[in-house]
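Email to the structure team, subject: Alkyl transferase model.

Hi all, the expression group asked for a predicted structure before they design truncation constructs. Nothing fancy, just the tokens so they can compare against earlier work. One-line instruction: predict Alkyl transferase, return tokens.
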Amino acid sequence: MATPSSLLLFIASLLHLLQWILEKSQATRLAQRLLLWVLAAGPIPQHVAFVMDGNRRYARSKGKIVQEGHGDGYMALRRVLEICLRLNVRCVSVYAFAIDNFKRSPDEVEALMYLAESKLLELCAHGNLLQEYDVRLNVIGRTELFPEYVQKAVVKAEGMTRKNNRSILNVCMPYSSRDEMTAAVESSIREALEKGDNDLSTIENITEDTINSHLMSVQRGSPPLDILVRTSGVKRLSDYMLWQASPVRSIMNHALRPVQCCENTQIHFNKTYWPDFGLFDFVPIILKWQRSVWFRQYEVSSRR
Ligand code: FPP
Ligand code: MG
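Reply from the structure team: attached below.
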């Protein structure tokens, strides 16, 4: 039977263990912050996009249900976003729901809708991540396809961060690149016809630059895309940021190259399932991008 003194000893050792765990986790946090601070002293990409893939395989590998996989995926989004914000990345885009994802089972679609509704509002709430780092939320895509309660949450969440302007978070849903490009072509034509009093020849004035400036992501302030990351080992773009990630330099004459389009998007396929993706997956990606910037700078200066 336990005596009062052995019970006290047990409680004291438990407290010591707790303190040790706390100190260790604080030390880890401090080391991570130091690492980000050092990285942020180098060149930093303006725009990083993520295809957050592998939530269901992650869930299966951990014996969890699919909904938990998506829930853990949301926690990873918070973690990765905070890393980007600490590095002073101006714009982060994430593929949260493809238009095609409506074809998944009704149960999974419903769970993703509830997740979107609650987590968008959570992210934007007073004192939460987007307010703390002065980030504006843009939901990019065909939001009219969402159930009404999600549409309301989107409008409310965007409104809560409307005045924030240090950084941008683009949550792309329900999104597809082809849809974004089609909408941009349509509105470019409409605008040309309006300006030219319906004279069809004005359509000839539409350039790549015109279409680029009509992309929803560009209209909402996104800079050119520097890095695109897809997790979970799948090597496809799955209709995400196809225009933004196109290497314009290889297909166009320099004199014709549009200013806004990106000429050097680095595409990274990472093996980690999205819910497990973190600092130690991201640091090598940033280092590789920094090396390419330094190399380009070196090339330019040695040509002079
Ligand atoms: C892809 O993995 C992931 C999704 C379709 C959903 C991603 C959504 C989140 C991470 C949360 C979003 C949060 C907000 C705020 C909207 P998958 O389902 O294709 O998994 P698999 O590749 O293993 O099948
Ligand atoms: Mg997938």
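Strands lie at 47-51, 91-95, 135-140, 167-172, 227-230, 266-269. The first helix runs from residue 4 to 39. Ping us if the truncation boundaries need rechecking.
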